[in-house]
Amino acid sequence: MSRVQPRPRSLMPMTLPLRQMLLVSRPALWINTLGVAVTGLWLSGQLWNSSLVWLVLLLYLTLPFNLLIYGLNDCADLDEDARSARKGGWQGARLSPGEAGPLLWLILGLNLPFLLVLGWWLPPAALGVLLLSALLFAGYSLRPLRFKARPFLDGLSNVAYALPLLIPALMVGAAVPWLAFAALCAYAVGKHAFDAVQDIQADVGAGTCTVATHLGASGTALYALGWFGLAGALVWALSPLSSAAVWLVCGGMALRLRRRPTPCQAARLYPLSIVSPWIVGAVSGVQLVYTLARG
Predict the structure, then answer these.
(1) pLDDT tens figures, 190-209
(2) DSSP secondary structure code for residue 33 in this structure
(3) Pick from 106, 91, 93: which is nearest to 198 by CA?
């Protein structure tokens, strides 16, 4: 009587614990996708729009889309993350090699249904922008592009964070907020460079060349400061208060890093970098409430 041979372990279905899935998606950073889309709703005059397509889009920009962004990155960066002291908590997961496969299936299983539904509902231009953002994020982490390991292209590809700002206007045929989009692009490039400084040692150990390993901590601080300065200047015409917030918060943390240009200092300042979108958003919200109050 023949015995049934067990399937190889690599073919057995595996699941990812909910806590690990949430760590991978980094809920503290969801504002970078969801908040940008909500800002786009505001700028396109659709802030109170509660149609089903809006709700589905906003839901997609929470867990599913952020799991794509950071899950692909974590799968591609197992070596770097193993050397990074900040992984394994609220700043991101540290995957075991056996978790990469289940995570990839989970990313596909959560993203594909949303993209199919949104592909049916969204106008072609809006869908194209959403897909471009997803492709840039995939290209940041995955070969053959792997922008993360290409200095300067690593940060420039992070304009993907700004693309959801355009979707609401493209959905309703409103004027596209190009000035706000350009300011958000500049902010995204500067923030990527600033955040990369804390990972210099881990990236060097893994043989990954980034804008931070290329310029060093001091040079990267100046590079980020330049982008933050540009972001504030671009947004001035829309909101001087928001411009001042960008310069004070983001420019201030870049100057502090410049005064003490070390990965340890960048790590100490990273919580401020995390909350910087919340601070700038809160300042912008004050202006929004004032505008609504005046009718």
Answers:
(1) 999 999 999 999 899 889 99
(2) T
(3) 91
